[in-house]
UniProtKB/TrEMBL annotation:
It comes from Pseudomonas hamedanensis. The keyword Nuclease applies. Residues 57-117 form the HNH nuclease domain. InterPro entries: HNH, HNH_nuc. The keyword Hydrolase applies. GO terms for molecular function: endonuclease activity; nucleic acid binding; zinc ion binding. This is HNH endonuclease. CDD domains: HNHc (cd00085). Keywords: Endonuclease, Hydrolase, Nuclease. It comes from the Bacteria.
Length: 122
C-alpha cells in the first residue's frame, strides 16, 4: 500500500531544485508565512533506481592516473579519505553509464567534488 501511495507523487514534487527556484521567485513575506506553518519533519518516499555494478579496477586505475590531482581543474584533491588517507577524487564517466557509456579507464576521469558537481549540474 505504501508503494502505491508513493508512486502517486509526481516527479515535480520530488525535484528540489525546481521547488527552490519557485521559492526564490516568491516574495520573502510569502516564504516566511509558509515557514511559520511548515511541517518540520520532511515526508519520506521510496525510490526505485537502477544502479551499476562498477569495475573496481577502472576506479583504481583512474585514481592512480590522476596522482591526487583533479583531471578537471588540475588542483590537488581538496582532502584525504578518512578511511585510508588517499586523495579524495570522484571517478566520473565522460559518457554516462545510463547513456550506454562504457565502464572503462578511457571513459572515466577523476574529479574533485566541485568539478564533479559542475559536470552534472553546471
Amino acid at each position: 500500500m505504501r508503494l502505491a501511495v508513493s508512486a502517486q507523487i509526481s516527479h515535480s514534487d520530488l525535484d528540489l531544485e525546481s521547488r527552490v527556484r519557485k521559492a526564490s521567485a516568491d516574495d520573502a513575506v510569502l516564504r516566511r508565512q509558509r515557514l511559520a506553518v511548515a511541517i518540520t519533519k520532511p515526508k519520506r518516499t521510496v525510490r526505485i533506481v537502477h544502479d551499476y555494478y562498477r569495475n573496481a579496477d577502472v576506479i583504481v586505475e583512474v585514481l592512480n592516473r590522476a596522482q591526487g590531482a583533479c583531471e578537471g581543474c588540475g588542483e590537488p584533491a581538496p582532502f584525504n579519505r578518512r578511511s585510508n588517507g588517499t586523495a579524495y577524487l570522484e571517478v566520473h564517466h565522460i559518457v554516462r553509464l545510463a547513456d550506454d557509456g562504457n565502464d572503462t579507464v578511457e571513459n572515466a576521469i577523476a574529479l574533485c567534488p566541485n568539478c564533479h558537481r559542475r559536470k552534472h549540474f553546471g
